[in-house]
Amino acid sequence: MTDERYLKRTIVKEVVPSRYLPEGSRNLRVYLPPGYNELLSYPVVYCQDGEQFFNFGRIATIANQLILDEGIEPFIIVGVDVDLDRRTAEYAPDGDRHAAYVSFFGEEMIPFIEGKYPIRSESESRILAGDSLGGSVSFHIALAFPKLFHQIIALSGAFYPASREIAEAAGDLSDLSLYMIVGLQETAFKSDRGVFDFVAMNREMRRILESKGASTMYGEHDGDHVWGFWQRFIPDALRCFLHAES
């Protein structure tokens, strides 16, 4: 049975105006940790597929548990919502809305959030998180804004050929640290782009990243391309980049 303390969550809805996105704005949900105080400063986790991370990944409940029971330093979570009909267009590097979404993320949303909430300004205090294509777009955002991001959580990252080609063409990636997992049953996943072996795809992306100097915390586990699998590893992923209070 879930501890009632974990379910007492403060989540604020925000709307970020955008000159890049055709619809002119994007909805966010912002988790504020227990004991939130505007006079303090916090690390932040930026999640693609924001609604799914909160509803299916249960990331706010997991955050409460880590903070209240494990002494992890309190942190803020920003979930960036996405229209599922436009998801591939925004998240895939060859999608027709990808450049606009990446520009929105780094040039509009980050200043909006960091101007409104007491978030630390150093890149070590920002983490990007995503599942499937959300993992790959997090990588591309980190490449586009290297001064802002270098920590990435990729849950069964959809590192299709276009993403791997971009990684191959990149220079030194030794500033990047990635937490990568993939399910051993993801060998024939049917995506909107065809059937892919996600295990082979993630192994190859890991090889490319490490050849460029990136650090990877990589794992292959029993599981499929579903939130029930990814949710199990969110606590471990967060522990990799967030630390217990001294």
TrEMBL record:
Name recorded for this polypeptide: Esterase family protein
Highest taxon of the lineage: Bacteria
Lineage, highest ranks first: Bacteria, Bacillati, Bacillota, Bacilli, Bacillales
Signal peptide: none
Gene3D superfamilies recorded: alpha/beta hydrolase
